[in-house]
Amino acid sequence: MYTNEMLESIKKVEATREARLQAVLAGNHPRRMTAEEKDQVLLENHPDHIATQFAELTIGPNKGEKVPLELAEILQANPRVKSGDIDLNNIDYDVDVLIIGGGGAGSAAAIMAHENGANVMIVTKLRHGDANTMMAEGGIQAADKPNDSPAQHYLDVMGGGHFKNVPELVYKLVNDAPLCIKWLNDLGVMFDKEEDGTMVTTHGGGTSRKRMHACKDYSGAEIMRVLRDEVQNRQIPVVDFTSAIEIIKDESGKAAGAVLMNMETKELLVARAKTVVIATGGAGRMHYQGFPTSNHYGATADGLVLAYRAGAPLLYAHTLQYHPTGAAYPSQIFGALVTEKVRSIGAQLINADGEAFMYPLETRDVCASSVIRECRRGNGVDTFDGGQGVWLDSPMIDMIHGEGTIEKRIPAMLRMYLKYGIDMRKQPILIYPTLHYQNGGIKIGKNGMSDVENLFVAGEAVGGIHGENRLMGNSLLDIIVFGRNAGINAAETAKNTQVAEKLTLSHVDDFVKEMEAAGIQTDVVSPKLLPNYTKQKSI
Amino acid sequence: MEKMVNIYLYGKKYEVPSNLTIINAMEYAGYQLVRGVGCRCGFCGACATIYRIKGQQELKTCLACQTKVEDNMYIATLPFFPLVKQPYDIQKVKPSEQIMMQLYPEIYACIGCNACTKSCTQELNVMQYIAYAQRGDLEKCAEESFDCVMCGVCSSRCPAGITHPQVGLLARRLNGKYLAPETQHLLDRVAEIEAGDCEAALQDIMQKTAEELKEMYNNRDFEK
Predict the structure, then answer these.
(1) Domain extents for chain A?
(2) A526-536 pLDDT, tens per residue?
(3) Whole-angstrom Cα distance, residue B48 to residue B37?
(4) CA distance A502 to B168
(5) Which residue in the list A203, A211, A272, A323 is annotated as catalytic?
(6) Mean pLDDT, residues A379-406
(7) Containing H/E element for A510?
(8) Which end of chain B is more exposed for a tag (fewer CB within 10 A), N or C?
């Protein structure tokens, strides 16, 4: 239910809607920004450019580089376990491939490692499938239509990432995209298709071709539940409610397992493996710069902490993605994702005065920065607790594509708002940027291995694929492409790896010494594992 | 000041702001949650919850992250429910009525009480999709069950022991793999990639300097 002030502003949105609609139907969208205008709006408004929100790392592989304050705090923190706290000879799980994380990347890796003959196990700190993958709504990119090509996809990815992306990883991403769509389709993922089998595809922010494949607005959920089912069908062991709190190495410095902790009993366990895959996902629950998040409860950058202590460098850890359209109202869904697909199928971004202040499908960083600027200019709508937002004019969707479109193509969004008495078919919705994605992460080579031998990484924990800004639909793609890749290569590498004779946590002890030498004194313990929201009124 | 309400978490009384969701209210009361919480956006089904309002008879069900607290609400979460999941080989099964009979024969024990539909946290017509499964109409079962978040509340209320979410998932996978129309443009592109036909253009664009790439990017043509 909207306040009276909001209803007054909605009248202004409605007053301009017919003219905006006619313009769109005639092919006249609000103007796209020039390259210079984009640079300017980013520099002046994007949270990544607020220098006081970053700290320089003083130890570890990325010493001298800047990362968000909250990330620096957990990267340079006390470990939960050191040598001597646990007997590493007392092995609880002994496998070829240990996968840390039960989301989309971890599950894809597990399936492919299993397919390639490995004895594989997944360990996950919540339930299997509790992951950002489950919450991805809009879709998955792949250049599989005649007017498109992997090279065209490559160009969009590089430009969206401000040309900072690692070329060999982008090559893999775009080249394998159609193969992965086929793989998912053949596993039984129900993509939206026309009657003749043609994929229903749309634009995402920054795409030059309509290559966004979707499963209504449950795209990630559909992919995740199929992958989870496949893992279960293959009877791959999944140890749930168990976190990995430290990588274990062998005496030559190769990754050789992990120290695990039962999330409920706090019991410590040892998992030995020939290869390890970190697929721990993102960091939204770190609430960088105080932003709300669209992320899963477990998104606390654990994998980055584990890898960093093990000596693996990070890449672009200073860049985060703030999704332009997080729910700004009502308070109960503050920060929840409003899929980009709402804009892909026609909703415009409108300020408090009813003006379409930008082209709605700029890349996410540009779009989020532009929304922030609009509010700073005094053109936002007051929400609650001093917050602001702008309108996403959802009723345009059914006006453009016909009644029933919202219900058919974005049912989750419709359902989410209806629970709070807002019918997005008839009234616009209020949005503001929300912390959505960790662009940076652990550096990998094209085989998916980090700089620590036998330590592989897949999914959101990887850095470099998306440069400094990811495009919509390239994350669901990335978890499949690089999850599969990591699984295949981890299984292959395991075949040529002897079981570690002696396991060690000496690298953790060394890290602690490095902290002491650098004069770092802190009470913070990491990995964080879960956020603490007790006694808080809102998140 | 936000209005406060009384809620009962597993029977114990707490006073919380009335605008909170059940999840937020539990945290406000001091619970550090590990179970019964997940995406917090209504997609993962981790926070299935049963509640009753004092003075009323009816037990209601919901997702705790998608439901506001009410005054005098008795709340019990359902963080785990022992659902049956039958393994099968997706490459070998056939999309027919037989497979349902074989893996989930209990669906034929449905007594038509409709408790599943009444309890669905996504407001799906659960009994209807089970009926479609019974008669082997997998396509309709898949469509009708598509928005399921597999929270398991329906199964917890079922007197026949049916595992509705697994039945829907099986129908959807069979539908996606075997019944949905083939995508020719996808098969074509995959064949092109495997034959190396896309390689030259990719190698070419990878050789561009940053300036050349920027020029190309800023002058892209856009599909209407």
Answers:
(1) 4-30+321-435, 78-319+439-507
(2) 999 999 999 87
(3) 9
(4) 47
(5) A323
(6) 96
(7) helix A506-517
(8) N
- B30 to chain A: nearest residue by CA? A534
- Nearest residue, CB atoms, B190 vs list A145, A171, A178: A178
**Pick among 3.40.30.10, 3.40.630.30, 3.50.50.60, 2.60.40.1240: CATH of A78-319+439-507:** 3.50.50.60
Above pLDDT 90, what percent of chain A? 99
Subunit contact B20:A538, Cβ cutoff 8 A: yes
Is A134–B44 a contact, with Cβ atoms under 8 angstroms apart?
yes
CA B53/CA B57 separation, integer angstroms: 8
Q: What is the 3-state secondary structure (H, E, C) of B99-158?
A: HHHHHCHHHHHCCCCCHHHHHCCCCCCHHHHHHHHHCCCHHHHHHHHCCCCCCCHHHHCC
Note if the pTM is more than 0.90: yes
Q: Does the structure show a pLDDT above 80 at A340?
A: yes
pLDDT at position A538 is: 62
The pLDDT confidence band at residue A512, using thresholds 50, 70 and 90, is: very high
* Residue B182 DSSP symbol: P
Q: How far apart are CA B56 and CA A391, in angstroms?
A: 39
pLDDT of amino acid A537:
73
Apex A42 CA angle, A40 and A43, nearest 5? 65
Residues of chain B contacting A163 with CB distance shorter than 8 Å: 210, 213-214
| Fold topology of A4-30+321-435 | Flavocytochrome C3; Chain A, domain 1 (3.90.700)
Domains of chain B: 4-77 (3.10.20.740), 81-208 (1.10.1060)
Task: Name the active-site residue from A46, A272, A296, A343.
Answer: A343
